[in-house]
Amino acid sequence: MPWELVPRLMSIVAEFSVPADQFLFGETIAAAPGLSIDVERAVPAGSRIMPYVWARGDGRAEFVTSMRENDYVRSVVVRDKFEDSSLCEVEWEESAERLVHEIHEMGATILEACVDGVRWRFRIRFESHDGLAKFNVYCKRHEIPYRLDRIAHLSTPSHPTDAYGLTAPQREALSLAVERGYFEVPRQVGFDELADELGVSVQAFSERVRRGADKVLRSALSARTDDND
Q: Which residue has the higher pLDDT, 32 or 56?
């Protein structure tokens, strides 16, 4: 969708990617093809930037060691460890990364971010077309080689939950949890039974529900705040 065809005052979500070695701990990722990183939760402007990340696959111990030696990182603490993944809490230095700070300054919200050995991939919500245009100008000025992959106009989502930025697996897991009574009091079913029904691990199902619920709540609370302004 051409940028000029998007109503300038409508919220939009842009999906774009950046070469892995051009962003944050890119050198570590590029050198470890079996390692992938996912941001645990997105945070709006005014809060800490990307405080939790999941490290998955081979080379997790080396990744944590490398992060602790990174000039952009103040501290790294491994909060949870599983067979194939680790949850790390990261505290960044103030000068951490120009791209993340520019997103922060524009009042945009990172909905999703992940990286493999090749590219960082982002889904970012902009309150208007102007925010996306400013971001584009910034990237060109600083020679940041990003690639715009998709623009979604939030006023006409193809599915009611698309406006929340849910992935298909997250939508499926949340819908099943609601239908089976996971959120009822008392709880009618556990993650083990629900995960078995979808044929995935309990950990994978839990992550889908937690991330999906986080996106829905943040979007709903953000909309409530905007309405009260």
A: 56
Question: What is the C-alpha separation between 197 and 168, in angstroms, rounded?
Answer: 16
pTM for this entry: 0.56
Show the domains of the chain with their CATH numbers: 9-153 (no CATH), 160-228 (1.10.10)
Cα separation values, 183 from 48, 83, 165, 173, Å: 29, 27, 21, 12
Instruction: Give the integer Cα–Cα distance in Å for 40 and 113.
Output: 9
| Residue 212 in tokens | 């999906």
d(CA 122, CA 185): 36
Angle in degrees, CA 9, 123, 157, rounded to 5: 55
Helices (H), 45-184: 60-68, 98-105, 129-141, 168-179
List the structure tokens of 89.
Answer: 């809490």
Report phi then psi at 114, rounded to 5. Answer: -150, 160
Length of the chain: 229
User: What proportions of the chain, in percent to the nearest 5, are helix, strand and coil?
Assistant: 40, 25, 35
Position 67 pLDDT exceeds 90? no
